[in-house]
Amino acid sequence: MAKHEFQTEVGQLLKLMTHSLYSNKEIFIRELVSNASDAIDKLEYLKITDEKLKGFETTPAVSIGFDEKDKSITIADNGIGMNEEDLISAIGTIAKSGTKSFVESLTGDAKKDSNLIGQFGVGFYSVFMVAQRVDVISKKAGEDQGFKWSSDGTGSYDLESVTKDENGTVIYIKLKDEDVSEFASKHRIENIVKKYSNHIPFPIFLNYEEEVAEELSEEDKKAGKEAKKSIEKKHEQINEATALWTQPKAKLKANDYNEFYKTISHDSEDPMAFVHTKAEGVSEYTTLFYIPKKAPMDMYRVDFQPGVKLYVKRVFITDDEKELLPTYLRFVKGVIDSEDLPLNVSRELLQENKVMANIKQSSVKKILSEIKKISKKEENYKEFIEQYNRPLKEGIYQDHMNKDAILELVRYKSTNDNSEMTSFADYKERASTEQKTIFYIIGEDERVLRNSPLLESYKKNNIEVLILDDKEIDEVITPSIGTYKDWELKDVTSCEAPKTEQSEEEQKKVKEEFKSIVEKITEVLGEAVKEVKTTDRLSESPSCVVKDANDPMAQMAAMMKSMGQEVPESAPILEINPDHKIVKSLNGCTDNKMIENVSWLLLDQAKMAEGIEIKDPVAFTKRLNEVMSKAF
Residues 69, 201: one domain? Predict the structure, then answer.
C-alpha cells in the first residue's frame, strides 16, 4: 500500500466538502450515479471503436446497496473502470479547469464557500460532505489488475493493488454520523434516484435485504401462531432508464426537463430555458439544449469543458468536442443524438461531416430563437445579458451566417440611461429622423467614458452614444459590425463631431485666428501627435484626443487586435477648444516656456480624460506645478 498526498487544490476542496454547510447533501448520490453512467457510456463506445474491446460482453447497469447497521452505502457500475494512473489523475489531482476555477473562487468563509457548491459540478468530491471514509475499488476494462483507493478526505489517500473479477468501479461510503445516516435507507435512496437520475439511460438497481414473514393459514392465525420471518435479498430497478431526450415532448413535464438538466450539468438550480427538437426527413436527429441561469466558471478559459454530449443512436460518442456548437455558445448544456452519423465517427470526420454540419447549423438557429424568446421578457433577459452578453458579442465576429440575429440580441450601456442596457433596435427608434448613424465610445472604465470630453457635443445635440466599456472585446468586435439595418456604426473618437451652429465662414475665421498657436503646439509636441487643430466638438473641456479614421495604421491595428497580436501605439490628433479660457489665453501668450508646459498639459489631460495612460507622470506633475505657480 502506498500513501499519496493530495494536490494542494484538492486538499482545499476536500476541506470545504468535509466541513460543508451546504444543505443539499443528497446531491452526492446524483454525482456518483452520473459518474457511473459516464463510465458505462465510455465503455459502450469503446466496445464499438476499440479493437481490443470489440466483443467485450457486459450488460450496462448501476447498482446501489446500503447497510443501515453499518451506516454505509455502496455504488457500483460495470463501466470502463480505472487503473492506478486514472485513480491518481481523476481523484488525487485537479485536471479540469472548472474545478480549478471553483478552487480559485474560494474565500475561506465556510458559509460563503458552501454556497459556491451549487454553482459548480462538485463531482466525486461531494461524497465527503457525508463520508468519514471512502473506498474506491476499480478495474479497467481489458486490464487484469484492480486497484483500491482509500481516503478519509484529509491530506492524503492510500492506493494499493487488489484482486477484482469484473471491470468497473465500486464505491464504498462509510457515513459520518447520525445527521447523514438517513441516506442508508431504501426510501431515501429511491427518492433521490427518481428525483435526479430517473432518465439515466441505464438501469439503476437497488440491492437491499428485507425481512419477510411467511403467510399463515386461517387456522394458524386463529391458533395464534406467529409467522416465521426470513431475510430476502432484493434487486429492484428504481429508474425508468429511458434517455429523456428520446421521449415525446407531450409526455414530459417541466420538472422532468429540469431534473435531467441537473444530472448532465451538475447544477443545483433549474435552467433558465431549454429547447427540445426532434428532426425527421433528410437528416434524423434529436437535440435537447439548456441555458443555465449562471455562466459556467470556466467560460473564459481556453481549456473550458464543453457542455454538449454527442450520441449516435443512443450510444455515447463524446462530451469533449468543442465544435459541436460554435464556441460563442459554449455556455449551452445538452445532448445531440444523431441517427445518421456512423458509430465509429472520429473527431476529424466529425469536423468535416455534412450531417454534423447541418445539425450544428440548425441547432444554432434553434438556440438563438430561444434566446430571442427570452428577450421578450425584460426581467428574464436582464439576467441572461448579465451572464452571456460577452460571448454573444463574440458570435457577431465568429458567425457571419447568424450575425443579423445576434445583433438583435446583444445589449449595450448608453448615455440615454445610466442603468438600463439597450439594443440597436431601441437606439435606432429613439434617434431623430435625420440621424442615420449609431455612435459609440470604447474604453475600460464606464465612468471615464461617460465623462469623456468627446461626448460634449453629442450631449449638446441630444445624440445618444453607446458606452462600450469591455475594451478587450469591444475594440475587436464592434468595428467588424459595419452597419445595422443600413445605419453605420461610428466610433466618436475617430469621426467628425455632430454639426454645430457655426457657419463655414465662422469656422474659417476661428482657424485663422488660432493658426499661430496651433503651429506652436504642433512644434512643441512633435511626434507625440499626428496633428493639432481647433474643434467645435467641445463645450466644457479645453482639449481632447481623437483617432484618424483614415489612418491605414488604425485599420491595421483593428486587424492585429482580432488576431491577438500586439498593436503599436499610434499618435493621436489633438483637438483644442477655441472657446475655452485656457486656449484663448494661450493664443495671446508670448512666454515660450508657458506655451511648452501648457501644450503638454493639454495633451496629457486629454489622454487622461479618455483613460489613456500618460508616459511621464513625473513630467506632467512638474509642468502642472510650474503653471500653477505662475497663476498664483
Answer: yes
